[in-house]
Amino acid sequence: ELFKQIQDIKSKATQSESMVQNITQDVKSLDYAKRHLTHSVTVLKRLQMLVTAVNQLEDLSKNRQYQDSAQLLQAVVQLMQHFKQYKSVVQIRQLSDRIHRLKSYLEDCVLKEFEQGFSPEGALVGQAWILHDACLVASVLSESTQEKMIKRYVDLQLKSYRQIFSRPTEEVSQLDNISRRYAFLKRILKSCSEVNIFPDHWAVNARISEKFCACTK
C-alpha cells in the first residue's frame, strides 16, 4: 500500500513537472509573439512617419521653404537608419531611391541659391534669410555640399583682392603695403559677419582668413 502511494506521488509529481514545462513553453511563445508583434507595429509606425515626411519634404523643397526642409530632412535621415536591414524589400528600396533623388534635388537648389545670391564681385544680391536657411539644408545634406558653398563664397569675396594685389607692377600690390591688405581683409570679414548667413560651426571667417593668407604669401 505504501509503495503504491509513493508511486502515485511520483506520477503526480512527473505530471506536475510536465505541466509546468508546457505552461512555461506557452508563456515563452506568447512572450516572443508579443515582442515580435510590438516590433512589427513599431516598424510600421516608423514607415508611415517616413513616407509622410518624404511627401511633406518634397512639397517644402519645391516651395523653397528651406528652414522647414532642413528639419524634416534631418528626421527623414534618422528614420531611414531604421530600415537599412530592409533594403531587400522592393518598397523600401524604392523609398530609399526616392529620398536619394530628393537629396540631390535639394543640393541643386541650395547651390543655385548661392550662385544667384551673390554678384560676380561677391556682393549680396539675394535675400539673406533664404541663403541662411539654404545653409541649414546643406548642413544636413553632407559636408561636400557645405564645402561647395563655403568655397564659392570665399572665392567670390577674395576675387577682387587677387585682382588688385596680384599685379607685380602696381605699387599697391607690394608686400610692404601691408596696411591696405589688412584693411581689405577686415572689410571682407565685417561684411561676412553682417550678412549673417552662415552657421557658426562653418567658421567661414576663418576660411576667408586662411585663403587670404594663402593668396598673400
From TrEMBL:
It comes from the Eukaryota. Coiled coil: none annotated. Residues 1-217 form the Vps53 N-terminal domain. GO terms for biological process: retrograde transport, endosome to Golgi. GO terms for cellular component: cytosol; GARP complex. PANTHER family: VACUOLAR PROTEIN SORTING-ASSOCIATED PROTEIN 53 HOMOLOG (PTHR12820:SF0), VACUOLAR SORTING PROTEIN 53 (PTHR12820). This is Vps53-like protein. It comes from Rhizopus microsporus.
